[in-house]
Amino acid sequence: MTTVTLPTVSPPPGRYAVAPGRSFAELTAYYGPLATLRRRVTLTGASLTVPESESESESESASVSEAMSQAAGARPVFRFDLAGTMKGSLLSEHVEPLADGRHLQLMADLDVRGVAFPVLLRLRVVRCVEGRLLVVGSARLPYRLLRRATGFRLPWSRPATRLRLLLAAEFA
Fold first, then answer.
1. Which tens digit of pLDDT belongs to each residue from 59-87?
2. SS3 label, residue 19
């Protein structure tokens, strides 16, 4: 069996935003193996800022994950602004490429009611063409810790032990 790797192009440096209707966010509450609540969360804004790379020749031949981790001091910044059930913002602190080159791991802070809650968000790069980046990812959040730290609460009729935040966005 042969493995075919698809060539990827890194997004050029700059600031990218998500056009209206080109994003999706969903919050799912789980109690054990059962989903007790599933709600779409309004993604009011999302942005990606890719810093200038040190050498242009590297950015032309680098994969997405290599481009995301080129400069130690200048890393890309993802920001997702949420409204509705979970009002807050998710801002990445650190972007780390995973081994296969098509996945990214973001260490981020979920800011709910002025309190930053640490989140590990794993993104899969679905498509990366010149000037466009389509990502899909999810984060698992322990509900009790989130509730104690930020005061975020679900309705009493919806018990939960953990939450899953699902995000999909096309940056252009």
1. 444 555 555 555 445 688 999 999 887 88
2. strand
